Write a sequence for this structure.
C-alpha cells in the first residue's frame, strides 16, 4: 500500500476513535456528522507527510493532524450557517439537518476539541502547536470576515481578493505542513520554508477552485458547475472579468451577476460566455501559476535530499491538477 | 486600596491592552465591544485571588485570568444569538448591534484568542492550563445544549436542572479558581479542593440568580424583574413550583408560563403569586445553602492558614449575598 494511503487510513481510523458517544446527543451527534461526511483529509495528510519527510515517525503528528482536521471542519460548520448553504459534499449541512443554534454550538465545541486533541502531543512541542492553532484560527476568522465584507462591497480589487483567500484558505494549508515540521523538530529555516510553500500552494489551490467552478468537469469535480456565479461569489474570475470588461460587456456582466430573477442556467451561461470572451480563465491560470512557482521556490529551500521530498511534492502536484 | 480593587484595576488595564485595533474592523470591533460592555470581572478576579492565596505573585496569573474572561465573554456573545437576546447589561448585544454572522465569527475569534492569551503563561504550566480551558469550554457547550434542550422538554427534573447549571455556569467558576492554583503550583489536593469549592459556589450562585430574578431588588440587581418568567426559562423556582403544585394551581402555573398572549406584568405577577404560595423561594434558598455548605467543606480542605484564605472567602460570601 502506498504511504499516502496508509496515512489516510490512519487518519480515518483515528478520527473514528474520537469519543463522540457522549451526552447531550444534540451536541455530539452533529460534531461526529460534520467530521465524517466525507472530507478528503487533505490537511491532516499534509501534516503527516511533512512530519515523515523530516524524518520523524508520522504517527507522532496524529494529534496535530487531527486537531487541524477538526478545526477545519469547525470552520465549515460555521461557514455554512453564515453562507446559508444547505448542502456540502451532496449532504445536508449541520445547521440545515438540525438548526442554526445546534450548528453554532457544536461548531464551538469542535473548536475547543481541536485544542484538547493537541494535548496528546509531546509536551516540548505543545506551546508551538497551540500557538500555531490559535494563530491560524484567528486568521481564518479574519479571512471569513473579509469574504463576508466583499459581498457588500462593489469594488473588490484583485490584491484584496488574494489576501482574503490567503487568510481564509491558504494559511491553514501552510499551518498543516508547519504542524508536521514542528512535531519532527525541523529547523526554524525549514519550518519557515514549508509554511510558505503551503501558503502559496493554498492560494494556487483556491484559484484552481475558482476556475473549476466554472470550467471544471462536473463529474470529476463533484460539484455543480457555476455554483459561485449563482451564489454571487466575487471570485478571481469575476473580479478579473470586471477589471477587463468595458462598455456593453461590463454592463451585461454586472447585470447578470447582480440580478437574481434569471433562471440559474441562463445566468451561468451568459456569465461564462463573458469569461470566455475576456479570457479570464487564462488570466486565472497565469495567476495560479505565479503562486505555484512561488511555492516551488520555498519548497526548494527545504534542506532535505530531493528523494525525501518526493512524496509531498507528488501530493502537491496532484492538488494542483486536482486529481485529488 | 484593597487588594481586590487592585486586582480588578489590573484586570481592566490588561483587557484594555489586548490588541483589537486590527483589521478587518467588522471582526475586531465586536470583540472589543463584547469585552468592555461592563462585566464585573468576577472570574478573572477569582483567578488572581487564588494565585495570590497560594503564595504566588498574582500578576503571573494574568494570562490565565484574561483567557478565562475572554472565554466567558465569547460564551455570552454566542448565547445571546442562540437566546435571541437583544440586550445585555442594558446594552445591545453583539448580534443585535451588528448581525448574527458577525456575532458568530467574532465569538469564534474570541474563543481562539482565549487560547492565544494562555501562551503568555509559564511554559511549565501551559499544558495544565490548555487542558483546563479546553475541558471547561466543552463542558460549557454541553451545559448550553442542555439548557436549549430544556426549552422543548416539558418535564425537567430538578437534578437535571442542577446538572445543567453545573455545566453551564459552575464549572467555569471552579476553573477560574483552579487556573490560579495551577499558576501558583498548588498541590494536587489543593487544586481539587479549590475547584470543588468553586463548582459548588457556582451552583449556589446560579440558584441565587434564579431567586433574584423574581424576588430581587431591581435597582440593586440591575436587571428587570421576572425576566426568566417572560423568557419562559425553566429555573429552579419554576421546576420546584411545578413539582409542588397540584390541581388548579398547577394548571394556572402552566397556563401562565406557557402562554405568550398575556401582557408581561400580568404573567409575572400571577406566576410570582404561585411561587409565594408554594414557598419556592424558601426551597431554592435551602437548596442554595446546601451547595454553599458543600463549597465550605471543600474550602476548609485547602491546606493554608485561615488568614491567607480570608480574602477569597470574603469575595465568595459577597457573591452569595450578591453585593457584587
Amino acid at each position: 500500500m502506498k504511504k499516502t494511503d496508509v496515512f489516510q487510513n490512519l487518519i480515518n481510523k483515528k478520527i473514528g476513535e474520537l469519543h463522540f458517544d457522549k451526552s447531550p446527543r444534540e451536541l455530539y451527534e452533529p460534531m461526529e456528522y460534520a467530521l465524517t461526511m466525507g472530507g478528503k483529509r487533505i490537511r491532516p495528510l499534509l501534516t503527516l507527510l511533512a512530519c515523515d519527510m523530516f524524518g520523524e515517525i508520522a504517527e507522532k503528528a496524529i494529534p496535530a493532524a487531527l486537531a487541524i482536521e477538526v478545526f477545519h471542519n469547525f470552520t465549515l460548520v460555521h461557514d455554512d450557517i453564515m453562507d446559508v448553504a444547505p448542502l456540502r459534499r451532496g449532504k445536508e449541512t449541520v445547521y440545515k439537518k438540525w438548526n442554526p443554534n445546534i450548528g453554532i454550538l457544536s461548531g464551538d465545541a469542535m473548536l475547543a476539541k481541536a485544542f484538547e486533541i493537541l494535548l496528546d502531543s509531546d509536551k516540548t512541542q505543545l506551546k508551538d502547536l497551540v500557538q500555531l492553532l490559535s494563530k491560524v484560527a484567528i486568521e481564518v476568522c479574519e479571512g471569513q470576515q473579509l469574504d463576508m465584507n466583499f459581498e457588500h462591497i462593489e469594488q473588490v480589487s484583485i490584491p484584496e481578493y488574494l489576501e482574503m483567500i490567503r487568510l481564509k484558505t491558504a494559511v491553514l494549508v501552510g499551518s498543516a505542513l508547519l504542524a508536521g515540521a514542528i512535531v519532527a523538530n525541523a529547523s526554524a529555516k525549514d519550518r519557515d520554508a514549508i509554511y510558505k510553500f503551503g501558503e502559496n500552494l493554498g492560494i494556487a489551490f483556491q484559484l484552481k477552485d475558482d476556475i473549476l467552478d466554472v470550467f471544471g468537469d462536473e463529474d470529476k469535480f463533484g460539484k455543480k458547475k457555476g455554483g459561485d456565479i449563482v451564489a454571487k461569489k466575487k471570485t478571481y474570475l469575476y473580479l478579473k472579468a470586471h477589471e477587463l470588461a468595458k462598455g456593453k460587456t461590463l454592463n451585461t456582466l454586472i447585470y447578470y451577476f447582480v440580478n437574481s430573477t434569471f433562471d440559474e442556467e441562463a445566468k451561468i451561461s451568459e456569465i461564462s460566455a463573458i469569461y470566455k470572451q475576456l479570457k479570464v480563465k487564462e488570466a486565472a491560470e497565469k495567476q495560479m501559476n505565479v503562486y505555484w512557482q512561488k511555492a516551488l521556490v520555498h519548497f526548494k529551500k527545504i534542506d532535505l535530499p530531493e528523494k525525501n521530498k518526493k512524496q509531498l511534492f507528488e501530493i502537491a502536484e496532484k492538488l494542483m491538477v486536482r486529481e485529488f
Summary: The beta strands of chain B are 87-88, 91-92.
